Amino acid sequence: MRSARDDQLVRPTVEDEVAAAGSELIGGPAGRRALPVGGWWTPVRIVALVAIGMFALGMVQKLPCYNYGWFYGATTQYTHACYSDIPHLYSGRGFDAGLIPYFDRIPQSLSGGMDYLEYPVLTGLFMEIAALLTPGGGTIQHREQLNWLVNAGMLMACTAVIAVCAARTHRRRPWDALLIALAPAFALTATVNWDLFAVALTAAAMLMWSRGRVLLAGALIGLAAAAKLYPVLLLGPLLVLCWRAGRMRAFGAAAAAAAGAWLVVNLPVMITHDAAGFHIRDGWAKFYTFSQERPIDFGSVWLLISQRTGNPLEGANTYVTLLMILGCLGLGALGLYAPRRPRFAQLAFLVVALFILTNKVYSPQYVLWLIPLAVLARPKWRDFLVWQACEVLYFLGIWSYLAYTGSGDKHQGLPTEGYQLAIALHLLGTLYLCAIVVRDILMPERDVVRRDGSDDPSGGVLDGAPDIFAPGSARRARHAEHSGGTGVRWGTGERTQ
Predict the structure, then answer these.
(1) Residue 206: pLDDT above 80?
(2) pTM (2 decimals)?
(3) Integer Cα distance of 390 and 429 in angstroms
(4) Where in or outside the cell (predicted)?
């Protein structure tokens, strides 16, 4: 028997033409006589299982490297596109030797020039726990393999958290999270680095905000920022949207909780004391100094410009900062002047995409930061798959390029010009999705999520709130009043005469 709750769920195979076409592989779109999903097989659990299955396929894709590519020959891990930082840094950052991150200096013979671990505190803790869970004994190669498996198991748990949180954030659209579960770039990059830990914390923060749990959402944003820097950017969209909706108390509570959670996990590592008094620990500061000092690197628009012009762009930090400031000001204006208050997920996706696009490096795994946000911002299969195709091509392109540069006279792989094309494709793919989201904000009738009359399902206290400060809306309302027409109270969708 069909339940009222099942009838309320949005089905992609009914709403989305690409999803409907793809569903032919499993029998076609759900019809009106289809049995509802119920019992143990809820949409959330199905999405989580699919995500875990795809993660496992991603692990299989790394099998050539697990067997020999990480250990025998530098180019094998590139020609098979199965590179991962995890086994290399297990010994390269002293975890195998029992060194404590941020406290113990790494011998130069291990690190190749890095004196301390260059990751934020919670990511360092994640790595340390995985190292402690790795069985000892055997060769270093065997221990690195086991450490990768332990890390992969922990990252698989993060994947399940991301899938569940994304499926529950939009109450009526749990099936949208299948885009995350089936995303090819997600499976390919999941074990390249430890980014999924921060992504899982961010997804949990988005879920808590959508439920109105302001303090918990803020605390999770602070913890996520202690694992990777980018989640702190979510406070920007919250500031703009809460200002427009007159919910500044909620923003203040979330920001205070974020700062408090970040300090709780960072202070014990940040501050040290000796005869000279209290000061910042060098090991803790390494992540921040490394981010400032590192040169332009793979995947970024700056590398593309540098390679094409021959200019090393030594002032890249200034360019990045300036573009980021201008971009954030533009997004703030978009949030305040848009005809209808943007959804939280839309501005969150745009600000993180801005950060990545203007950064000195656009690593393949950075796509993991965007995938959950993209699904919440624009759950349209065609646009998502176009973007994913660009990211998969770049994933293959960077490893093929590294194989080319590392194979000596053999030139086995993609030459520089081909790699530059791959960079351009993945930058344009991200810009394409950004443009679609901006269009949805400026033309809210095109927003897929709002077609059923919803306002902001991931907005929490913002969902259905009237606009208090919205210069654009006020101007339109005055125009409507003078012309004898109708205005719209955009926060609630209520029409006013």
Answers:
(1) yes
(2) 0.91
(3) 6
(4) Cell membrane
The 3-class secondary structure across the chain, one letter per residue, is: CCCHHHHHCCCHHHHCHHHHHHHHHHCCCCCCCCCCCCCCCCHHHHHHHHHHHHHHHHHHHCHHHHHHHCCCCCCHHHHCCCCCHHHHHHHHCCCCCCCCCCCCCCCHHHHCCCCCCCCCHHHHHHHHHHHHHCCCCCCHHHHHHHHHHHHHHHHHHHHHHHHHHHHHHCCCCHHHHHHHHHCHHHHHHCCCCCHHHHHHHHHHHHHHHHCCCHHHHHHHHHHHHCCCCHHHHHHHHHHHHHHHHCCHHHHHHHHHHHHHHHHHHHHHHHEEEECCEEEECHHHHHHHHHHHHCCCCCCCHHHHHHHHHCCCCCCHHHHHHHHHHHHHHHHHHHHHHCCCCCCHHHHHHHHHHHHHHHCCCCCHHHHHHHHHHHHHHCCCHHHHHHHHHHHHHHHHHHHHHHHHHHCHHHCCCCCHHHHHHHHHHHHHHHHHHHHHHHHHHHCHHHCCHHHHCCCCCCCHHHCCCCCCCCHHHHHHHHHHHHHCCCEEECCCCEEEC
Give phi and psi for 298, each to the nearest 5.
-55, 140
Average pLDDT, integer, range 356-375: 97
Burial of 44 (0-12, 13-18, 19+ CB in 10 A): middle
Residue 228: closest CA among 248, 206, 198: 198
Q: How far apart are CA 360 and CA 320, in angstroms?
A: 7
Report residue 407 as tokens. Answer: 């194979």
Distance, in Å, from the CA atom of 331 to the CA atom of 317, rounded to the nearest integer, reads 21
Kindly tell me if the per-residue pLDDT of 474 is higher than 70: no
Beta-carbon-side half-sphere exposure of residue 76 (alpha carbons within 13 Å): 12
Please determine, for residue 477, whether its predicted confidence score (pLDDT) is greater than 60.
no
Q: How far apart are CA 387 and CA 183, in angstroms?
A: 10
Residue 475 confidence (pLDDT):
53
What is residue 471's predicted lDDT score, i.e. its pLDDT?
A: 77
Mean pLDDT across 59-68: 94
Q: What is the pLDDT of residues 424-463, one digit of tens each?
A: 999 999 999 999 999 999 999 999 999 888 899 999 999 9
Q: What pLDDT sits at residue 13?
A: 66
Which pair of tokens denotes residue 196?
A: 């999924």
